[in-house]
Structure formats: structure tokens, C-alpha cells
Amino acid sequence: MMALRRHPANRLARALRRLLGGDAGAGVLLILVALGAVIAANSPLAPAYHALFHAELPWTPVAKLDTLHLWINDGAMAVFFFVVGLEIKREILQGELSDPLRRRLPVLAAIAGMAAPALVYLSIAGTALPLQRGWAIPAATDIAFAMGVIGLLGSRVPPSLRLFLLTVAIVDDLGAVAIIALFYTAGIKLAWLIGALAVLAGLIALGRWRTERTWPFLLLAVALWYCVLHSGVHATIAGVVAAFTIPLRIDARGDSMLLRLEHALVPWNAYAVVPLFGFANAGVALAGAGLSGLVDPLPLAIGAGLFAGKQIGIFAAIVLADRIGFASRPEGASWLQIWGTAALCGIGFTMSLFIGALAFPLYPQLIEEAKLGVLAGSLASALLGFAILRLGSSTNTNGSSH
């Protein structure tokens, strides 16, 4: 039996299960997808890659979405934001964000972790248009990517830090949704907005009437997305708003509609929607840019915001909160491990790429430069965070981290 366990094939199988299972799986998949997109965009496949996503479709059921890229960014990503909304509502009503004392630290850290990158960005890119519109790009954290890196470290990371990172990322997502709604909304079309509000009223009524079936909620959620898509507000906001109307009433079996939907959609989100978005949006052409392109104002501002702004803002907020007694640092975590976790929050990827596309709709070249900054800042943050947490686990083992 021991010989079987030591066999190289069995050791490889166990390593793959550990790598691709749990939190790590989605993160590893995103790394491979991002790498594949960059390779495709810088190979002889580049014309086919761009045509696949940007060529006009021969037929589309929604005239406004006439390319695959638009269907992914405005359609599939609404599902992503729907799941984000479900997670936020559950956390606020039942999770870490339901307790005023426990939510102090992650909320403070998330706010600081959005403000500091924005300030770093503006200090480098300046406040002149159009670059000013990119201030929110480095303010986002990618839950799947960051939790994937944590997953690769296994038991080396204290459970309290995993929970802290997840909660910070969820609050961060809520902030990103608010930013998109407030700062990246085009001209409002009143008739469509009124239609969206009417559909929203219907969703709220379903909850008040204690409707137990899921399909009426989903049907109205699609109608809400359609109205919002044409209203001038970004369509993905409909996903979050619809999710907030899904009831969390726990039945006798300890189940609810929200929990069932979240359980059903999370795997599709992690292994289909987000990787598809990543492959469609991470393909930045490096020809003519190279390393020198990273010091151009936009990529440098985004990369520095993610890499420096995130960890400085979050780590400083935790230190300050702990020192003044506002909130205690995560239990059982050393300051070195907290620094590593703060560095991981600089992995922007999904949300940063998404905001980058919204920030510069009339400037394709700036969108490409933003991708370069997002990829560089996210990669640097992932590598630094992983290295620090590895080091932190070894120093904890030796009892010398506190």
C-alpha cells in the first residue's frame, strides 16, 4: 500500500487534485486563461483571436449585443455580478458582515484598499482626461485569483486570514459595483430606466408574496437585465440588484432560494463565466511595448496602484485599527502573514479588466495599455503575496514571527 502511495503517478495525481481542487482550482484556471490570452494575442493566431470576439455576429437576439465580446462583457458578466450580489447579501444577513464588531476590520481595510490605489493612480497618471477616468481600475480585488493563491498555500495560511481576505474582497466588490453605477454610467434613457424600476418592483413583490418557485425571479431578473442594458446604466448592475431581491428565508431543512442559487451558480461562475471573460479581455498585444511599455503613465499608474497602493492601504488600515483598539487583527496571524495577504489583494484581474474597458470606451489603445498594467500589477502582487506567506508560515513554525 505504501509503495502505491509513493509511486510517481499517484503522487502526481494527488498533487493535481490539491492544485485544481477547492479555492486553488479557479485561481490556477485563471492563470492559465490569462497566459493563453496573451499568447494568442501575440502569435499568428492574433487575427483569429480578435475576430472571434470582435467580429459582428451574423445574427443576435439582442441588437445592442452584436459581437461575442459584448455578449460576454454585458451578458455573461451579469451572471458574475448576480453571484457577487448573492454572496454580498448572504454575508450582510448571515456572515461576517452581519456582526458590527466583526465587520469593522474588513470594511475599513477594503475602504483603505480602494482609496490608496486610486490616489497612487492619480499621482502618476494625473487628473487630466481621459486618463483620469481610470482611477478606479486598481481599486478592485479578484476574489477567485486571490483565494486561488491562498488555496495553493494550503494549511500554511491561518483560517482567520482566509476569512478576512474573502470578506475584504466581498466588500471590495460592493464598492466596485457602486463605482461602476455612479461613475461609469452613460447617458440615461428615462423610459428604459422606468421599465427597469417597474421590473424591480415586481421582483420585490415576489419576495413579499413569499413566492417559493425560482423561475419567476429568474424570468424577471432577465427582464431587468434587458431594461438596464438599454437604459444607459451598465447592464451588469442588474445582476447585483436582482440578487438582492432573492429571499434568504431559511426553511425547515436549513435551505433557502438564495443558498440554492448560489450553490448552483458558483461553479459556473468560477469555471466558465470568469475564465471566458478573462480569455476575451486579457489578450494584450505586446509588440512594440515590451518592458518599456510598463513605464508609460497609464500602465505604470495601474500597476503601481495594484502592487503598492493595495498593500499599503490595507496593511496600514489593519495596523492602525489594531493599535488604537478599533478592531483586532485576524486571530493567529503574524504581521508578516497579514502583509502577504494585503499584497494578494493587489490581484485585480477580472474586475480591474472590466473597469478598464468601461473607463476608456472611445480609446482602444488605452484599453490595451490598461490591460498591460492590470496584468503586471496583478502578477507582481500574486508573486509577492505568495512568497511572503510562504516565508510567514516557516517563521511561524519556528516561533519567531510575533
Describe the structure.
- The protein is mainly alpha-helical.
- The protein is built from 16 helices and no strands.
- The protein has helices at 2-6, 8-20, 22-41, 46-54, 68-93, 100-125, 143-153, 159-183, 190-208, 215-229, 237-244, 257-281, 297-324, 335-344, 349-359, 364-397.
- Helix 13 runs parallel beside helix 16.
- The longest helix is centred in the last third of the chain and has 34 residues, at 364-397.
- Residues 1-5 have low confidence and may be disordered.
Question: Residue share in helices?
Answer: over 70%
As residue ranges, the low-confidence spans are 1-5
Average per-residue pLDDT, rounded, comes to 89
Strand-and-helix sequence, N→C? HHHHHHHHHHHHHHHH
Strand content: under 5%
Q: Ends: how far apart? A: 41 Å
What is the 3D shape? globular
**How many E strands?**
0
Whole-angstrom Rg: 22 Å
Number of helices: 16
Structural class: mainly alpha
Q: Layout of SSEs?
A:
Blueprint: H1 2-6, H2 8-20, H3 22-41, H4 46-54, H5 68-93, H6 100-125, H7 143-153, H8 159-183, H9 190-208, H10 215-229, H11 237-244, H12 257-281, H13 297-324, H14 335-344, H15 349-359, H16 364-397
Helix pairs in contact: 3-7, 3-12, 5-8, 5-11, 5-12, 6-8, 6-13, 7-8, 7-16, 9-10, 10-11, 12-15, 13-14, 13-16, 14-16, 15-16
